[in-house]
From TrEMBL:
PANTHER family: IMPORT ATP-BINDING PROTEIN, TRANSPORTER, PUTATIVE-RELATED. This is Putative ABC transport system ATP-binding protein. It comes from Conexibacter arvalis. Signal peptide: none annotated. The keyword 4Fe-4S does not apply. The lineage of its organism: Bacteria, Bacillati, Actinomycetota, Thermoleophilia, Solirubrobacterales. The keyword Nucleotide-binding applies. GO terms for molecular function: ATP binding; ATP hydrolysis activity; transmembrane transporter activity. Keywords: ATP-binding, Nucleotide-binding.
């Protein structure tokens, strides 16, 4: 599977006053084309830090991040209004500032930078359909359930057809059935090679639909061995992931 996103020897230390917190210590991994990868780790393990570096939103202290072979932090690389480079979508679970905005227009917003209004709305409708949220085109954010909001957020994050979708704990607060739906959609989209996805989750069972699961702990990224025995999941972190 050719690599789409590659992190190579990425280090990041957060500093608060005199306290230095090594959050990422020489982290290397890749996400392949059409791959659905998930990283789990406890609260404060560094998942958001890792995802922001993978999105090119923050710079690592050391190491290299490439998307499709190109350096994500290279000066001159074109960025959009949301700060993301072309080719990356970020699932954001917050709604529009205007509470009366129909979801079709909300999903179309990221396209308006470059696409005429009518075409943006057409593509937004298609994105909502792909996210199984076609019925929500006229709905307003305050009317939606948490699960519907995630589906709309998924449509909005993918409306530009990014090569890579990033999502920080996208199923937080959802019930089992709703988590299944969201993770199933990501699995389908990646299986059909529409995009790759990298998500974070705080606990392991949520990510079983992913092609690849990694854990982040103490600054290190590990790839656990997974075995299913009946309903039980056995995980043994047994090797350091390398590109
Ligand atoms: N900008 C920052 N400055 C200083 N410390 C930070 C900064 N961002 C994160 N940290 C700290 O780095 C550690 C990792 O934070 P991060 O948000 O990446 O973890 P996380 O795994 O996403 O946590 P959660 O599951 O709670 O979202 C935490 O101890 C956090 O307090």
């Amino acid at each position: 599977m050719p690599a789409l996103l590659s992190l190579d020897g990425v280090c990041k230390t957060h500093r608060r006053g005199r306290h230095a917190n090594v959050v990422l210590d020489r982290v290397s991994f890749h996400v392949g084309v059409g791959e659905f990868a998930a990283i789990f780790g406890r609260r404060g393990a560094g998942k958001t830090t890792l995802l922001r570096i993978a999105a090119g939103l923050d710079a690592p202290d050391a190491g290299r991040v490439t998307l499709d072979g190109r350096d994500l932090l290279a000066t001159g690389r074109r960025r959009r209004l949301d700060g993301l480079p072309d080719g990356i979508g970020w699932l954001v679970r917050s709604g529009p500032l205007t509470r009366s905005m129909p979801m079709l227009d909300f999903v179309a917003m990221p396209l308006l930078e470059r696409v005429p209004h009518r075409e943006a709305r057409r593509r937004a409708g298609a994105a909502l359909e792909r996210a199984t949220a076609g019925a929500l085109v006229d709905a307003r954010w305050p009317e939606l359930s948490d699960a519907e909001r995630v589906l709309v957020a998924l449509a909005r994050a993918t409306v530009r057809r990014p090569a890579l979708l990033l999502a920080d704990d996208p199923t937080a607060g959802l019930g089992t059935r709703e988590r299944e739906i969201v993770l199933g959609l990501l699995r389908e989209a990646t299986d059909e090679n529409e995009m790759s996805a990298l998500i974070t989750v705080p606990a392991l069972p949520d990510v079983l639909r992913a092609h690849r699961v990694m854990s982040l702990s103490g600054g290190e990224l590990m790839e656990p061995t997974r075995q299913r025995t009946g309903d039980h999941l056995v995980v043994a972190a047994d090797r350091r992931e390398s590109v």
